[in-house]
Q: What sequence folds into this?
């Protein structure tokens, strides 16, 4: 890592950190801070719940497919006996 921990939330720059970047905030790809604004999540909770339900249903379907294949193979083995 580019910073060396000095303790008490203090860090020291190392050679691996690279050079300091200076410029005008909000320009040249530099970030910007707005006083009094609340940062919100960039994740849609509803969309993620829908994705989880879809994944759960796909897992259940796959599990049932494996279970059916296991039963068919078991019956085939019993037929041979």
A:
């Amino acid at each position: 890592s580019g910073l060396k921990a000095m303790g008490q939330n203090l860090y020291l720059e190392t050679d691996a950190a690279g050079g300091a970047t200076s410029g005008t905030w909000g320009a040249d790809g530099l970030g910007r801070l707005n006083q009094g604004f609340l940062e919100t999540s960039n994740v849609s909770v509803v969309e993620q719940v829908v994705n989880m339900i879809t994944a759960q249903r796909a897992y259940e379907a796959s599990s049932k497919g494996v279970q059916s294949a296991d039963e068919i193979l078991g019956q085939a083995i019993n037929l041979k006996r």
Summary: Helices lie at 45-80. The mean pLDDT is 91. Strands lie at 3-7, 10-13.
